[in-house]
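Predict the 3D structure for this chain.
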Amino acid sequence: MKKCRAVGAATLAVAFWLLVMGCGESRQPYAGNYRSVESFAGKGQVELELKENGEATWKLAQEGLIIKLKWQVEDNQLWLYTKEGGIIHATPSDKGRKLMVDMTGQWHPSCPKENCLSFERVSGGGP
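Done. Predicted structure below.
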């Protein structure tokens, strides 16, 4: 009887894991390397790497700044999370080849121009 319960518990655990991992939208169309079109705060271009495993890197090479992020896709929006709890929202367009990144820390349906940073994919990713 104990063996049957253990097998049942293991089956439930695997089913739950598959359910949780299946939540959210696919990252594949957006994974790749992006570069900001314009300079960020007058300190050079930002390089953004989005990996399919949900990890990301934000690099401002001129400043020697590298920030590790986690990211996910929800409702056709990219949500990037800093280790400290900050959130950066990005709106993809052109089948994921372009991103409009809202630097306010709040999501706006139309990114405020003075707080928005445009990115273009330079390698990797979907179509």
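Residues 18 and 46 are 35 Å apart (CA to CA).
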